[in-house]
Amino acid sequence: MTVTVKLNGETHELPDGATVADAVAAVGAPSDGRGVAAAVDGEVVPRSAWASHPLAVDDRVEVLRAVQGG
Amino acid sequence: MGALKIADREFDSRLIVGTGGFRSLDSMRDAVRASGAEMATVALRRVDPSARGSILEVLDDCGCFVLPNTAGCFTARDAVTTARLAREALETSWVKLEVIGDDKTLLPDPGELLDAAEELVADGFTVLPYTSDDPILARRLEDAGCAAVMPLGSPIGSGMGIANPYNLRLIVESARVPVILDAGIGTASDAALAMEAGCDAVLLASAVSRSRDPAAMATAMRKAVEAGYAARHAGRIPRRLYGEASSPVEGVAELT
Q1: B237 CA to chain A: closest CA distance, Å?
Q2: pLDDT, tens only, A13-59
Q3: Are A70 and B43 in contact (CB under 8 A)?
Q4: pTM, to two decimals
Q5: B-side interface with A, Cβ within 8 Å?
Q6: How far apart (Å, rounded) are the C-alpha atoms in residues B151 and B160?
Q7: What is the ipTM of this complex?
């Protein structure tokens, strides 16, 4: 079983029971999470909740990091 | 040069650099070092697994306080969410608030900006809003609890300098929070003019990052900000319609 989500704008299959932490890992973000933040359906998921926040079908997951800008 | 105090932080440098537009992290590092800046902005974007190097490590090496921005947001809602993501990512409650109204001019959307500022202040953020050069909007942002106001000189990346020095003067004269000239700087004289006009600091990116020699331009900007600040505080002479001799008018020899 897999769960299909929109991960940074792309359709992505994750194992059933996947959490935000799995999505963060799937996009290749640093594992310590430094400079990285995640939102599900436009709501920020605090880093402390990444591993416990399960993903549901069609969730829109955004994983962002600090880049040059401004 | 006196310290720049914003909210509960003090900075010896009055030049703040944006990190956008550099050709490489090495080029950025050299320029940030040459600028003497103690605060630098970053943006938040989707993770790119192919990206190399960490901008945060480079800015740490430079001793810079990292100020995340909300660049790319067109609504208060997106800007507020982006600020909250930045707080998570960078463990800072400081934000350079940008809410753009138009992707051609990149001018701020005043209504959305004010709404976002109010919401973020209520949520405990230290808000530094990028605003237009409208003195009334600057006052409204200050009244909303922003820690500084950051009027543009001219549109982002335009290099057009200070398009409306009169408005800037009105903002400076009434503001009770630091005024940071943000956007439009093209070259060193623009930065010096901003400081001479009474701005507390200058924030610039493209003028350095897109110049031919970013480290050299960063040095020029550092000196310009220092010179403009010093001149402002030294008390310039009044402008006069006619000349006034600086040599004595008495005791001139009769030679013919």
Answers
A1: 36
A2: 999 999 999 999 999 887 666 789 999 999 999 999 999 999 999 99
A3: yes
A4: 0.91
A5: 18-22, 25, 28, 41-49, 51, 54-56, 66-69, 71, 81, 84-86, 88-90, 96, 98, 205
A6: 14
A7: 0.92
* CA dist list (Å): B100 to B96, B104, B194: 13, 10, 23
Nearest one of B15, B157, B41 to B95, comparing CA atoms = B41
B84 chain-A contacts, CB cut-off 8 A: 44
Interface of chain A toward chain B, CB-CB under 8 angstroms: 8-9, 27-30, 34-39, 42-44, 46-47, 62-70
Residues 6+ apart with CB under 8 A from B75: B99, B112
CB contact under 8 A, A37 and B43: no
B156-185 pLDDT tens trace: 999 999 999 999 999 999 999 999 999 999
Average pLDDT, chain B: 95
Q: How many CB atoms lie within 10 A of CB B220?
A: 21
CA distance A35 to chain B (A): 4
CA distance A65 to chain B (A): 5
Q: In terms of C-beta density within 10 A (0-12 exposed, 13-18 middle, 19 or more buried), how is residue B3 classed? A: exposed
